Amino acid sequence: MPKSVELFFDVGSPYSYLAATQIERIAERSGATVAWKPMVLGAVFKATENDMPARCPAKARYMLADLARFAALYGVPFKMSSRFPVNGLRAGRLVVAAGAPESVGALVLALFRAVWVDDRDPSDPAVLADVANGVGLDGAALVGAIDDAAVKDALRANTDDAIARGVFGAPSFFVGDQLFWGNDRLDFVERALHEG
Amino acid sequence: MPKSVELFFDVGSPYSYLAATQIERIAERSGATVAWKPMVLGAVFKATENDMPARCPAKARYMLADLARFAALYGVPFKMSSRFPVNGLRAGRLVVAAGAPESVGALVLALFRAVWVDDRDPSDPAVLADVANGVGLDGAALVGAIDDAAVKDALRANTDDAIARGVFGAPSFFVGDQLFWGNDRLDFVERALHEG
Known about the structure:
Two copies of one chain form a homodimer. Chain A has nine helices and four strands; from the N terminus they run βαβαααααααββα. Chain A has helices spanning 14-29, 41-48, 57-74, 89-98, 105-116, 125-134, 139-145, 149-164, 186-195, and strands spanning 4-9, 33-38, 172-175, 178-181. A four-stranded mixed β-sheet of chain A has the order 2-1-3-4, sandwiched between helices. In chain A, strand 3 and strand 4 (178-181) form a beta hairpin. At the A-B interface, helix 3 and strand 4 of A face helix 3 and strand 4 of B.
């Protein structure tokens, strides 16, 4: 069995974007693969009685500084979305429609960049199609699939799976059955991959 | 001006304990001093409409694993308190009564150990006196002072100062006017001290 790290994310989560920019390099260093698992963060919050961090105004202000610090540390661009909170539901369905969790990294990273660098709206089908086209996929076909029952069900199944395994926020990682929450736990994720 | 890092904490906060075990070494590496600033975390949560993380059951379960991971990383003992949430109010007053923020490190660390290693009750005056005696202070005199108006006011002033400067949780650090929140931001604190 090759090693794997599962990344549960919502395209609307800025810390998920930051983690996504790093996880492939981290996985590679351990000879591991990344399984990209979109989920619906709003449904996770509701099921776990958790809240989005930005609900607390002082925390929301702090987050802007904190996100900028991590972006500088990683050397990646970051621009706060003008439409926060961002609805990542359709983008999650697009990822599910695009293929197996191990095969959709380029699409996921392009979606994150669209939202957290270029301030585009991931609930706009035209944006989704354009982003998919940009990574060599058939944007029109994928956008045409996001209302399919099978696609909706698959995204819901990812979300239910995450909740059942203890997830309450994003990004969340699994190395085997070990859960790690937050972009700021990537060091622990890497340690678990080395040990695994 | 010698460099300084302010640590706003509540003895009832387990992540504050973890951070406290590391902050003096981090400060020393930058030739900086630590200003230990007790505050009342419950009052901070109330003023900022924030919530204790453990209010979300899934997050509370995860926190146990996360706290154990950091304790192992740091090589420090940790035992979850049997009385969580822990009321750190009297311990905060004791620290304020004991002297200037730069002079109370040994007492603060002993209080944290009493709660987060030895599972003692920091709302029990006998425990507080014993812990103070153990670091060479006059426990009886300090415990006798914790209901003084000046002591209560000083702890309240710390709390109000923290809230006014953007604090919404514990531990929180200031390097100059830069706020850092969480045991997991110690790397950023150290970087700010080196740059400062």
